[in-house]
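FORM 7B: Structural annotation worksheet

SECTION A. Query
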Amino acid sequence: MSSLKTLPVGWKKIKLKKLVTQDIKNGYSPNCPEEPNGSWILGLGNLTENGFNSSHAKPAPVDDTRVKDFLLASGDFLISRSNTLDKVGRTILFRGEIENCSYPDLLMRFRVDETQVLNEYLESYLRSSTVRKYIQSCASGTSESMVKINKTAVENIPIILPSSPEQKAIADLLSIWDEAIEKTERVIQAKEKRFKGLMRELIVEPRNTQKDAKWEMVKLGDVCKVTKGTQLNVEHMKDEGEYYALNGGIEPSGWTHAWNTEAETITISEGGNSCGYVNYNTQRFWSGGHCYSLLNLKKNVDKQYLYFYLKLHQLILMKLRVGSGLPNIQKKDVDKFVIALPPLLQQKQIAEGLSAAQYEINLLTQLAEKYKAQKRGLMQKMLTGEWRVKPDVVMSYE
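SECTION B. Predicted structure
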C-alpha cells in the first residue's frame, strides 16, 4: 500500500502500543477433548483472510482452570503470532461470535482505547497491505513453513489515524464491501451444498432403483490408462522457458512441445498432503511424478461424468493412502478402483447438469474475488488519506 509523504490535516501516525489498554498476551493451548461440552478454544484456522470463521473452534477442557484466564470478550483483538509467512500476523476483531471461548498459545490478544480508535477501523487497518508488509518484515524462523512474530513487533505496528468521524465513515464504507463479500460467499456455500447433493442424487441414488438397473460396475483401469508422470529436471530445462508446479508436475510456459498430456485431462494426486485429490485440467500440462493422469478413455465413458464421479468419491480415494510420513496411493489400487457407469447418453446428461451447476458456482466465486479486489483497492486509497470521504459525509458522523 502506498502512503502519502504528508498526512492530511488532522491525521496522525502512531504505534499500536500507544492505543492498547492492556498488555499484549499469548494464549494457552490445553489438551482438548473430542466431544463438545459448551467450552471452546480457537485455532489458527479461525483467523481467515476475510475475517473470523467460527467453524474451526475446538472443544476446550472444562476441568482445566487455566482456560478461564484466557476467555475472550467482545472487543478483543486477536493476531496470529506463528504461521506461514503469508498468514502470520492475521488479525481479527472478536465480536462475541462464540460464547465461553478462549484463545491458544499461537495467538496474541489485546484491547485498544476506543476513545482514540474505532475498533472496526483498526481491524481494517491491521488487515491492510501496509501492515502485512510490516509483519512479514518482522517475521523470523528456521522453518520456511512456520515463522513467528513477537510482542515487540506487534506493539510497533505503525497506525495511521484520521479523526474519529472519518474513521467511522471509512469503516462504514468498507463494511459495504464486507457485506457484499459475505452475502456472495453465503450463496456460494449454499450452492456448493446443493451441488454435492445433486451429485449424490444423479450418481449414487439412481443405482438403487429398478429403472436404472443397466448401470455397470467397472474398474477404473479397465476404462482408461492410469499413467504416472515423470518429474522434469527444472535446472536442466531452465533455458527452454519458465516452469511452475501444477498438480505435482511441471508446466512449461511458452514451451509446449514437451507436454505429455492433452487439455481436459483428469488427474489424481499420488502423494503428499493432497493425496487422492481429483482435478480436471483444462489446459495442457506436464504430468509430473506426483500425480496419476487418466488417459485414453474408452468410448463408453464420458470424461466429465468420470470426473464428477471421482470427485464425489474423493474421500474414498484418499483412504487408499498407504505409508507413514508422506503417504501415497499405489497405481494398482487406482486401477482397481470401482466406478459405476450408466449408459453413455445418461452419463452425458448427468455431466451436463452438473457442469451447469458448477459453472454457476464458478461465476459467483469470480464475483466474490472481484469484490475482494475492489475492497483492497479502496483500502489502499482510503486508509492512507489518498482518497478522502466527502466532508459533508464526515460531518454526519460528528
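SECTION C. Observations
Residues 12-161 form a domain with the Adenine-n6-DNA-methyltransferase TaqI; Chain A, domain 2 fold (CATH 3.90.220.20). The chain has eleven helices and 22 strands.

SECTION D. Sign-off
Analyst initials: ____
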